[in-house]
Structures are given as C-alpha cells and as structure tokens.
Amino acid sequence: MYAGTSLEDAHVDDLFETPLHPYTIGLLDALPRMGEDHSRRLASIEGSPPDLLEKPRHCQFAFRCNYAFEKCWNEIPLLNEITQGHSVACFYDMEKGAPRK
Known about the structure:
Elements: E1 8-9, H1 12-17, H2 22-29, H3 70-74, E2 80-83, E3 86-88, E4 92-93, E5 98-99
C-alpha cells in the first residue's frame, strides 16, 4: 500500500523474490539484512509522499519514482496481473527495463 492504494499484490515468497513495483523494491532495499555490516546505511526512498487531501490524477508514487515517465503523470495505474497470483499497478516493466505495452 502507498498513499491508500495497493501497488503490488503477490504471495509473500514471490513478492520478496521478484518485486515488480519500484516502491516494493525501495521498501525491500530499506530492510536490514542479517549478517551484513551494520555500519552500512539503509536505503531510503527519496522525495515526499503525495498530499492525501488532493484527489489523485496520476500515479501516487510518481513524485518519488526513478522510472516515472509521461503516462505516469497522466493516468492512475490499476492492478494488473503479470503472472498468476502476482499483480502490480505500474506502467513501467521492471523486468524489461522499459514501459509496459
């Protein structure tokens, strides 16, 4: 969930092994890892969350997303099943490194 919107839905193992949304990837990168050097700074997601008092007119995560492109600012992505049991609300295909068709 981000700004009251579900961005990715998958079984736990699938979500951790193959995250498909930039926000999910950012959250997972921010987790401390067992056995790693504890002096390493945890990753953070740059930027600020959207104003929740404004009605969304675009992807709520676009302000903080490194992959946002024109479509992200003009439409609200809906959850779309990518593989069985794994849905994502994103116009960018993280696996292909390009906008979804």
